What we know:
The chain is an alpha+beta fold. It has helices at 5-15, 48-56, 72-77, and strands at 19-24, 30-36, 42-43, 60-61, 69-70.
Amino acid sequence: MNxxxxxxxxxxxxxxxxxxxxxxxxxxxxxxxxxxNRDGFRLTDCSLSVFNRLLRRRLIRSEAGKPYRITRxxxxxxxxxxxxx
Length: 85
């Protein structure tokens, strides 16, 4: 599966325990997203278009109104990266 650089960064953050917080409008459509890593820092690469592509490919999922997390398919799709801590 072809995944862009920005999608890889977001999936990598989610695989390490991050989450995507979102806001919905009156019609229930997501209009703003923020991706946070496990330490609480915001990732700037996560835009609404990246979010929609990940959602369409079923690489992320939300359960019971909670923030979006990575799915099993997302874990299999993400490539390993060095974590420069």
